[in-house]
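Problem statement: downstream parser choked on a complex file, so we are re-checking the raw output for the magnesium ion run. The parser issue turned out to be on our end (a line-ending mismatch), but while we're here, posting the original submission so the record is complete.
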Amino acid sequence: MKSPQEENLELKPFELLLDQTTISRRINAMGQQITRDYKDKNPVLLGVLKGCIIFLADLIRVVNLPLEIEFVSATSYRHGAKREEELLFSGPSHIPLKGRHVLIVEGVVDSGRTVSTILEQVRKVEPASVEIVTLVDKPGSHRTEIDIAYKGFSIGNEFVIGFGLDNTQKYRNLPFIGKVIDIR
Ligand code: IMP
Ligand code: MG
């Protein structure tokens, strides 16, 4: 049984931020850009689980090139009520990326810690090139210097859900992006 407080943490009110048409138009444009930039490069799209899933599925269908997909997973664990999170990776070390053109595909970049850690790990295996692709970016939240080559949308510091993005593992299946309303 969950306490009312726990229930409340999982189910939060939200409002529409980016509708389906807006998202699909933007993904189409990103796909066309990647198609032009990676012609004859046979890129590997390295999805960061789980937030990348819907975005990656839509993106690869509008990249008109031979390509491969691989995945890494990044899970952040909270230590009790403390704010610090520990990142646990199922890293890219076992994926043959040496000499390949790699695109790291994320659902959302917040502090930038996840994506920059993955970038560091990918660079160790000497790819031909590596760039970051994200559907949503929160530039005001970055805590590390990151260069994002392909960005769907820049938003503020709000917490967003849907289109693969979760709040305590829920809402990933929403076909649009919503913004969680802070009711405090
Ligand atoms: P980072 O702070 O850039 O390392 O992002 C860490 C992770 O936090 C992301 O990969 C997401 O899983 C999650 N995250 C950050 N902001 C949001 C958000 O607005 N909605 C859903 N998940 C988020
Ligand atoms: Mg999450």
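For whoever reads this later: The chain is about 25% helix and 30% strand.
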